[in-house]
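Report of the visiting student (M.T.), summer placement. My assignment was to run the structure pipeline on a short list of targets and document each run. The first record concerns ABC transporter ATP-binding protein.
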Amino acid sequence: MSITVDQVTYAAGNTVIVNGVSISVEKGKVLGLLGPNGSGKSSLLRLICRLRQVRSGIIRLGDDDVSGLSRAALARRIAFVEQQSTTDTQITVRDVVRLGRTPHRGLLSSWGSDDDAAVEEALARVDMAERARQLWQTLSGGERQRVHIARALAQSPSELLLDEPTNHLDIQHQLDILALVAKLGLTSIIALHDLNLAAMFCDHLVVLQKGEVAASGTPEEVLTEDLIARVFGVRAHIERSAVHGRTHIQYRVS
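After the run finished, the structure tokens were exported:
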């Protein structure tokens, strides 16, 4: 397994937010992390990249316990794309992506051809090479998310974490972003709210409820009418899409 979370618990003060969670992601696969607001999705992602400290349990990248990795080593291995990021600084698209090379450069090291190559490749992979000189502030929401992903790719990671990457985007950009991630070939965990998008683009799903795993498996195994009613509190009808062949959910209005 490329990412393994083994019986991990995390608490803020006396409030347990992640409670004994175990998940695993195979190399090169995309795992969708689902659950209502407050279920622990964002906290779990931050625990994996060590922005939060586990109370108990172990998180591994391959054979390596993340608690034993230096910050620089961890940043060279895993990239994290948060929901939203902004800046008032006048900065170009290329400059944003260049920030992804920080973990690969020492305090006294100069910018090299390897750094240039990583940045240009990252821009090309998200189809933003032609916008490289454009100011960040002039981009649309979907374009900014592409640049965020390019910055993450410039880190040359083997694992990619994304926290609600399609939040606040229109449907075209939601589809574009998730299709892009699915084609990257990186081991990825994506926290999502939209169950249909998760079914379309994820190989495996984990549903969290009140900080615990409520279900885990393929989209077909996980997204059942019973689970959707029990975890999300809505009635639904499940069918296989005639368009993409994956699970499709139709919600019932009471």
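The domain at 3-252 is CATH 3.40.50.300 (Rossmann fold). The longest strand covers residues 15-25. I thank the supervising group for their guidance throughout the placement.
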